[in-house]
Amino acid sequence: MTARATWKGAERRVAADLHGQRIPVTGVDRDGADVVTPCFHVQVKLRKSLPAWLWTWLDGICGDAAAHGKIGILVLKKPRQPDVEGLVVLRYGDFVDLCGTLTSREPLDAERRRPPHQPVRLPDRRNRARP
After folding, report:
1. What are phi and psi of 41, to 5 degrees?
2. Which of 32, 47, 90, 98 is the most exposed place for a label (fewest CB within 10 A)?
3. pTM for the whole thing?
4. How far is residue 20's CA from residue 34's CA, in Å, rounded to a whole number?
5. Per-residue pLDDT for the chain (131 aa), expressed as one digit of tens each?
6. Is the CA virtual torsion 7, 12, 13, 15 positive or negative?
7. Residues 36, 43: contact at Cβ < 8 Å?
8. Rounded to whole angstroms, how far apart are CA atoms 2 and 33?
9. 74 beta partners
């Protein structure tokens, strides 16, 4: 499989999982979305490696959350960075579960998602006052 086929395949799988549409590369707008869904514009990035500390922290919180029947998330931000600009990291399988069920292919296997979760209805925060 070529490198090109690898990232294209990843984009296609994400589009299928999230019930979205893959946007082919035009060469014009590379800051744009790879996948568009009713709720999200998604960029899919494949890298040979990601920092080990990221996986250590994520595994820790996901293990703790799973013991309580919850989904673990990791919030990352720099000192003095506004909270609203922080990053939220969670496992892809958990994200897909939060967005709804998979319909276009088999559910994620145990190596890619642990433990299985029910879709969660998130509270409406549109009218929430900000500090």
Report:
1. -110, 120
2. 47
3. 0.68
4. 10
5. 677 788 899 999 999 999 999 998 766 666 789 999 988 999 999 999 999 999 999 999 999 999 999 999 999 999 999 999 999 999 999 999 888 754 444 444 444 444 444 444 444 544 444 44
6. positive
7. no
8. 22
9. 89
